[in-house]
Design goal:
L-valine transmembrane transporter activity, about 250 residues, ATP-binding, binds adenosine-5'-triphosphate, P-loop_NTPase, six-stranded mixed sheet, L-phenylalanine transmembrane transporter activity, ATP hydrolysis activity
């Protein structure tokens, strides 16, 4: 089943077409990657999928239903959760309280929200830090908190916007099994990621956005060897130069 699909989605900011007739489908149960150079429109596409921005054209379908006109809280209720690239926890609250904010979407009472938040903290490895003020967390801790806040809304689809950015290689290695376990219990993941080691390790399928357009898709390894993708990242002629260099070393 396709859980999320965007069809011919465009977003114009004044004279800039940040997303240009982009289409993609995210199968339920997958970890799907969205990659592309800086400024390609990836975060804008997330904002369109989650309802934080209205598209200039195109449609967003969730579990087969057209949600294009729905505001973010209605989509959250359906099961779409996103993280933000710039992590902004409630600094004055503890880790536990921050996660509970997400849990209020599904739980009416304070105690039920706190209980759900504790379970999520265990899942993402924040259980020992429940009473820590969010302001005291390291970068890696704040990234886990951002993940936890989204997970606490009990999503069917988790949109992760660079949750690995700023982590060192061992912190990246530590979080990969957490993401795999989230998928294993049935949560579908669409992730924007620049850390290619993680994309290669985690993603079943990858879509590539460049200057607002979808330029390639496929299994991660094939996509990374795609000439159009290499050119989008490294500039015109890069694929041919790399082939030539590869030849020289052979
Ligand atoms: N609210 C906005 N108003 C005007 N322009 C915007 C707005 N949001 C994004 N843009 C522009 O749209 C383009 C796409 O931005 P976006 O943040 O979606 O790219 P991205 O692929 O997520 O980039 P990065 O990898 O650097 O985060 C950029 O040129 C950006 O400056």
């Amino acid at each position: 089943m396709i859980l999320l699909s965007v069809e011919g989605l465009s977003k114009r900011f004044g004279g800039l077409l940040a997303v240009d007739k982009a289409s993609m489908a995210v199968p339920e149960g997958s970890i799907t990657g969205l990659i592309g150079p800086n400024g390609a429109g990836k975060t804008t596409l997330f904002a369109l999928a989650s309802g934080f921005l209205e598209p200039s054209a195109g449609r967003v379908l969730f579990a087969g239903e057209d949600v294009t006109a729905e505001p973010p809280h209605r989509r959250a209720r359906r099961g779409i959760a996103r993280t933000f690239q710039i992590v902004q926890p409630f600094q004055g609250l503890t880790v536990h309280e921050n996660i509970a904010v997400g849990a209020y979407l599904r739980h009416a009472g304070r105690q039920a929200a706190l209980d759900a938040a504790r379970a999520v903290a265990e899942e993402v490895g924040l259980a020992p830090l429940l009473e820590t003020p969010a302001a005291a967390l390291t970068v890696a801790g704040r990234k886990r908190l951002e993940l936890a806040r989204a997970l606490a809304t009990a999503p069917r689809l988790l949109l992760l916007d660079e949750v690995l950015a700023g982590l060192n290689p061992s912190e990246v290695r530590d979080i990969l099994p957490v993401l795999r376990a989230i998928r294993a219990r049935g949560v579908t993941i669409l992730m924007i990621e620049h850390v290619m080691q993680a994309v290669m390790n985690l993603c079943d399928h990858v879509h590539v956005l460049a200057q607002g357009r979808m330029i390639a898709e496929g299994p991660p390894r094939a996509v990374c060897n795609d000439a159009a993708v290499i050119e989008a990242y490294l500039g015109h002629g890069a694929a041919a130069r790399m082939r030539a260099e590869g030849g020289a070393h052979a």
